[in-house]
Model the fold of this input.
Amino acid sequence: MQWLIWVGAVLSLTGFIGLILSILKVNRARKAGLSDEDLRAAVQKAMPLNLGSLFLSVIGLMTIMLGMSFS
Done:
């Protein structure tokens, strides 16, 4: 079940990269000096990426644990 560990690692890494992109998007919006409403809208736009990336990362970590327990 070594392949399950590698699949989980790829999923977790993909989720981690998505989280970094989400952080960069929000940070860029913060530094742009937007009004409160515009900043809120920018954060709300980044939320689906953030939540999807977090979900993908968690699924990847669970896949790694499953692969380790089957090995």
Remarks:
- The radius of gyration is 16 Å.
- The longest helix spans residues 36-70.
- The chain has two helices and no strands.
